[in-house]
Amino acid sequence: MVTGDTWQSLSDRVIAVVRSQVRRVRRRLAGSGDPFEVFLTSEALAINQARQDHLASLELDLNGKTVLEVGAGIGLHTKFFEDRECSVLCTDGRPENVAELLRRYPHRRAQVLDLDEVGDLSALGMFDVVYCYGLLYHLSRPEQALQALARVCREMILLETCVTPGEEVALHPEAEDAWNPNQASSGLGCRPTRPWVMAMLKKHFGHAYISATQPRHPDFDLTWAQPISKPLHRAVFVGAKAPLANAHLRPALMMQQVHDLAATTRG
User: Fold this and answer.
1) Are the CB atoms for 133 and 80 separated by under 8 Å?
2) Looking at residue 146, what is its pLDDT?
3) How much is the pLDDT for 5?
4) Which of these, 25, 193, 253, 260, could form a disulfide with 179 (CB 3.0-4.6 Å)?
5) What is the pTM of this model?
6) Can you list the domains of the chain with their CATH numbers?
């Protein structure tokens, strides 16, 4: 269990790291032609494509839904839902990201939403689907965020996150670079285990699933009993308010996964 003292210690360490890097970071940002370049690198675009190809392969009923997109960044994922005639509210915790999103896509609805700071989301309304890809591990209070999202979700949450391999239910707080527009704005994120994610989805949504397949990208592990040693491990989950009869989802964790068939066919 993570105690208050542990969180305070981690917060103090994060603040110290951020302060020590301020001058270096300012020089780096000043020298960059595009402060949002982190979203537009070939690596970032490749993993986004792999994520959305995989999401399409799950054959979920997503057409014409109302969608709350959290951690939208500069809006590169939203077209997936627009192509399916969904009504989407894009949100991100950083005002500069939301401003850039609206500059690029002025037709979209978007607003600032910091899930580490806001607990009651009822003012946003109700949504059929919550899209939470690439955000959970940037939050310092991920369970509170899931609880808040569950209260405004009618059907399901689509969740992709970095995880820590392991069979225990554990959160694993992680310091991040607060200056980076693609990292935790608070400077403190987490790398939960897969059992933690499943437990929290079941607790707050009622039903929890992991995808039987994984996106075709090196960050997404296929073997969990003896995972490859690498910086990032990722997995895809679905939390649902009612049981889902879907051949691509499993209600229990799998130690062995495969790449999605659509990606295998393309590859």
Assistant:
1) no
2) 98
3) 55
4) 25
5) 0.86
6) 4-266 (3.40.50.150)
